[in-house]
Amino acid sequence: ELHTLRYIHTAMTDPGPGLPWFVIVGYVDGELFMHYNSTARRVVPRTEWMAAKADQQYWDRETQIEQHNEQIDRENLGTLQRRYNQTGGSHTVQRMSGCDILEDGTIRGYYQEADDGRDFIAFDKGTMTFTAAVPEAVPTKRKWEEGDYAEGLKQYLEETCVEWLRRYVEYGKAELGRR
């Protein structure tokens, strides 16, 4: 793989005392470059090159996006607890998405979700369908396949994600190239 951009979202019903219930981390070529959590509620740079290259408008826009994702995952936690008929206990929802630019220029994109460490649902960009890994994911699969969610996700993975990956690699080329 030539370059990779990965985002990992983690939402927990019971993270423990003093810990945020929602966290997002972003990696470029395996290097942590951004972080967001439900306590600070701001996207912050985790590398010198991101701090130096991205302007305040970028951080404000990314913060708005992640605050929206935080709201979505709060709803997702409740939905999943109802589907699994869970009333209490600790539960975790994870989403992983990203894109890769391979040596030959091929672009790969992926989106998958897990619940309590078990596969839940994944997007197949080739067939424009979602694979439900468990029966509880079938209502989500149906909802997403009935709407235009797949089309938007494909566009994000093939265009928006790749565009930002190229930009991030350019921002960090001196540091990323040394690894």
From TrEMBL:
Q: Name one GO cellular component term.
A: MHC class I protein complex
Any one Gene Ontology BP term? antigen processing and presentation of peptide antigen via MHC class I
Q: List the Gene3D superfamilies hit by this protein, alphabetically.
A: MHC class I-like antigen recognition-like (3.30.500.10)
Which keywords does the record carry? Answer: Disulfide bond, Glycoprotein, Immunity, Membrane, MHC I, Signal, Transmembrane, Transmembrane helix
Spell out the protein name for this chain: MHC class I antigen
Record lineage: Eukaryota, Metazoa, Chordata, Craniata, Vertebrata
Membrane topology of the entry: Single-pass type I membrane protein
Boundaries of every MHC class I-like antigen recognition-like domain copy = 2-176
Q: Which PANTHER family match?
A: MAJOR HISTOCOMPATIBILITY COMPLEX CLASS I-RELATED GENE PROTEIN, MHC CLASS I-RELATED
Taxonomic source organism? Gallus gallus (Chicken)
The principal localisation class reads membrane
One Pfam family from the record: MHC_I
Which superkingdom is the protein from? Eukaryota
Protein family membership: Belongs to the MHC class I family.
Q: Where does this protein reside within or beyond the cell?
A: Membrane
Name the InterPro entries on file: MHC_class-I_related, MHC_I-like_Ag-recog, MHC_I-like_Ag-recog_sf, MHC_I/II-like_Ag-recog, MHC_I_a_a1/a2
Keyword rRNA processing carried by entry: no
